[in-house]
Recover the amino acids of this structure.
């Protein structure tokens, strides 16, 4: 099978990481893949903040969970109150992906960059997980200020990166009746 298609099919969200930091060369390759994502009008409206500071990662997790526990959504409240959940699964690297507010399609463009990161990480045998619930942390302007973002950018998502500490990486069955053809 084609190597790219095989990598796409093998990629899983990893929720258990080893404590060893990924090396800079691998991180650079993952970020390079991100900046080669397609963008509307070639805006390239993204900014990547690499966090390898465990205290900040833990703070982001704790603050997000505190705000999740105040949600009106039951499952989110339960996650927020869980003593065992670390929002970033104790990954040694977290990349915050931010978009330029006045671009044509910054959210979609940043999502394409994230997907490139996830596939690149898989190709390098590095575990990854796209974290959307970090949005709670970003609700506080004082929290956003910690990232020193360029003016007119807002954080959207985070990506965990680390060496896979899990052995169960089997893909769930995929829905097959999701395509129709008009010829």
């Amino acid at each position: 099978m084609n190597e790219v298609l095989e990598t796409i099919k093998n990629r899983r969200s990893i929720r258990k990481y080893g404590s060893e930091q990924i090396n800079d060369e691998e991180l650079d390759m993952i970020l390079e893949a991100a900046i080669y994502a397609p963008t509307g009008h070639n805006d390239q409206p993204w900014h990547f903040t690499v966090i390898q500071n465990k205290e900040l990662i833990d703070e982001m997790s704790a603050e997000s969970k505190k705000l999740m526990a105040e949600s009106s959504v039951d499952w989110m409240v339960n996650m927020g109150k869980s003593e065992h959940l670390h929002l970033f699964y104790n990954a040694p690297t977290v990349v915050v992906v931010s978009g330029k507010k006045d671009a044509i399609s910054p959210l979609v463009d940043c999502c394409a960059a994230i997907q490139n990161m996830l596939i690149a990480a898989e190709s390098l045998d590095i575990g990854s997980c796209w974290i959307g619930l970090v949005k709670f942390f970003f609700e506080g302007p004082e929290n956003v200020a910690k990232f020193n973002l360029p003016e007119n950018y807002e954080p959207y998502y985070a990506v965990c990166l680390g060496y896979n500490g899990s052995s169960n990486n089997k893909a769930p069955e995929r829905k097959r009746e999701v395509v129709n053809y008009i010829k």
